[in-house]
Amino acid sequence: MDIAAVIRFTKEHLKNEKTGHDFYHGERVAHLASKMYLADHESAHEDSHEVAIIKSAGYLHDTIDEKICADPEKVVEEIKDLLPQVGFNDLEVWDILYTIQHMSFSANIEHHYHLPLSGQYVQDADRLESLGAIGIARAFTYGGKHGNKIYDPKIKPAKLVSHDQYRTHVETTINHFYEKLFHLINYMNTPAAKKEAERRTAYMRNFVREFMQEWNVD
């Protein structure tokens, strides 16, 4: 199955994105998710429908993200028109749309959505993108774009309890590590993702530890 049209769609919709949710992020999610799936399913092959579903969801997931998309419902309708043209049947279209509409961290704060197997790999890959060196870079890029302070000891990390609170509470980029990023390892779906999350989380913890040592110069 040729998903070139999905790739073109993603490039067009994310061409002006500068907060770490750009096309290259979607591309990394698509390839990492499919790589983990193929490693877990030795009988699967690169050009299978399942891999095409995973890659398409990986590419598309941020095209409807409320953080960067002015009209997610409009883009959902565009995706509904696009996917059958690529060759997906009704069930496959449903899998992709359900995944990209329910995989985000914010959508799962109050209610945990059970994704199809393909979606679990995409969700894991997306969460891994929030960890490690790339995760650090994306956190500070996003925080800077939205006017967040790097760190302020007077602003304490919050316990996230709802989607709206997560979107509106006062945060710093360093607090974001404590509020969300260090916890992502607990929400991975697959063994491969959990193993990689351990490595990337350890890298991030070392970074934050070094940051705090340099901050506290007394």
Describe this structure in words.
It contains ten helices and no strands. The chain is globular and about 60 Å long. With 218 residues, the chain is mainly alpha-helical. It is 61% helix and 0% strand.
Structural class: mainly alpha
Overall geometric form: globular
Question: How large, in whole angstroms, is the Cα Rg?
Answer: 18 Å
* Helical run tally: 10
For the biggest sheet, the summary is: none
How far is the first residue's CA from the last residue's CA? 60 Å
Strand segment count? 0
Question: What number is the mean pLDDT?
Answer: 93
Content of β-strand: under 5%
SSE pattern, N- to C-terminal: HHHHHHHHHH
Proportion of helical residues: 55-70%
Q: Note poorly predicted spans.
A: none
Search tags:
single chain, 218 residues, mainly alpha, 61% helix
Brief synopsis:
The protein is mainly alpha-helical. The protein has ten helices and no strands.
What's the helix and strand layout?
Blueprint: H1 4-13, H2 23-40, H3 49-60, H4 72-86, H5 90-102, H6 117-128, H7 132-145, H8 163-168, H9 173-179, H10 191-215
Helix pairs in contact: 2-3, 2-6, 3-5, 3-6, 5-6, 6-10, 7-10
